[in-house]
Specification:
By secondary structure, the protein is of the alpha/beta class. Helices cover 29% and strands 20% of the residues. The mean pLDDT is 94. The chain binds iron/sulfur cluster.
Length: 225
């Protein structure tokens, strides 16, 4: 059958054979990154809500399981927007685990909601959290990530640091560099300090591999990525 909220599995260097769950059902995000591969954000918000009821997502996941596929290496919550915006995130994590015992659950996040202790406690239910953090220079963050007004890179970074100190699971940090936007020495120095201070389990520094939302967004040279 055709699925709305379950996609893949896809092979991922970081997660293996990863089965994706979309928790938003549309382009709902607290950012509107110039490099986003799923298109421009339509609902730009940091307001949490049950954008898609957990039961709808879990019903599809159960159907996928009943089709008899080989279990994935990882169930990854992400999709068309920022998954922590969905207030049903903890329920999806717990029930996905019941459907696929032994398969770890990962969450992709832009970390903008991490300053909220409730969101950090929900993320702590996952086995792997994959935050992105592209710039610690506020003007660059504005240009590359275009977050909702009020989101500051420094606050997000502090919250990520706090989460690292509270959480015993794995954190795979991703930094995406766009040429002439967030590849400044100032940003790279700040990110290097940030990474040295925090024991992340993995750090990937990447650049665009496909066209983003903005055609002007370009990849950096390989030696800078
Ligand atoms: S945070 Fe992720 S989903 Fe949201 S706009 Fe950026 S790349 Fe796209």
């Amino acid at each position: 059958m055709g699925f709305k909220f379950v996609f893949g599995p896809v092979m991922s260097g970081r997660l293996g054979r990863s089965l994706g769950l979309d928790l938003l059902g549309g382009r709902i995000c607290s950012m509107d990154c110039v490099y986003c591969e799923v298109g421009a954000t339509r609902q730009h918000t940091i307001q949490r809500a049950p954008y898609v009821p957990a039961e709808d997502i879990l019903d599809e996941l159960e159907t996928w399981k009943d089709e008899g596929h080989q279990p994935p290496d990882m169930i990854t919550l992400g999709g068309l927007g920022e998954p922590t915006l969905n207030t049903e995130l903890p329920y999806v994590i717990e029930e996905a685990r019941k459907l696929f015992p032994g398969v770890p659950v990962a969450v992709l996040t832009n970390a903008t909601l991490m300053p909220d202790p409730q969101v950090r406690s929900e993320l702590a239910l996952a086995d792997v959290v994959l935050p992105s953090l592209d710039s610690l220079v506020e003007e660059e963050c504005e240009r590359v990530n275009r977050p909702v007004p009020g989101v500051e890179a420094a606050t997000v970074a502090d919250a990520l640091e706090q989460f690292r100190s509270e959480y015993s699971g794995k954190i795979f940090l991703e930094i995406l560099l766009v040429r002439g936007v967030n590849d400044s020495e100032r940003n790279l120095d700040r990110l290097a300090d940030f990474c040295r201070r925090n024991a992340f389990d993995r750090i990937d520094v990447v650049t665009l591999s496909r066209p983003g939302t903005e055609r002007s967004a370009e990849a950096v040279d390989a030696e800078n990525a």
